Q: What sequence folds into this?
């Protein structure tokens, strides 16, 4: 992104959520809650089956922000989000974002972006805001 404009859409990302992805995330995060990895257990819960780790799906949102804002996102980005519906194995997740507000001062620019994540059924998985601060003398990417 070369130019920051209110209303500018961020690069959309689509991800397929597989049980292998969930298992790998469980291993990396050491979160082996059976709701994520044990179909027999998960099927007996109110969730009715395996659900992906919320932070795995949030990582997809972070990927979109990194593609849009590069190092600035990695060093000075934060979320204010809500998890709405769990993602499940087999879901295709679409991540979208749009610049909503831009605050400029002499040294720094703060950009507030609306972010949404939904599945192939158009169910909202995550919604909220991502905020990134950038030094005015740095490139975005």
A:
């Amino acid at each position: 992104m070369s130019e920051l404009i209110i209303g500018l859409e961020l690069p959309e990302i689509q991800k397929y959520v597989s049980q292998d992805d969930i298992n790998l995330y469980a291993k990396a995060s050491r979160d082996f809650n059976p709701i994520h990895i044990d179909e027999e257990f998960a099927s007996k819960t109110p969730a009715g089956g395996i659900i992906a780790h919320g932070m795995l799906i949030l990582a997809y949102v972070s990927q979109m922000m990194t593609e849009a804002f590069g190092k600035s996102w990695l060093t000075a980005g934060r979320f204010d989000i809500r998890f709405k519906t769990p993602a499940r194995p087999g879901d295709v997740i679409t991540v979208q974002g749009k610049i909503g507000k831009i605050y400029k001062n002499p040294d720094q620019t703060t950009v507030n972006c609306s972010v949404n994540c939904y599945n192939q059924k158009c169910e909202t998985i995550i919604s909220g805001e991502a905020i990134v601060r950038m030094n005015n003398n740095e490139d975005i990417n």
Q: What stands out?
A: Residues 54-69 form the longest helix (16 residues). Residues 13-18+53-135 form a domain with the Thiol Ester Dehydrase; Chain A fold (CATH 3.10.129.10).
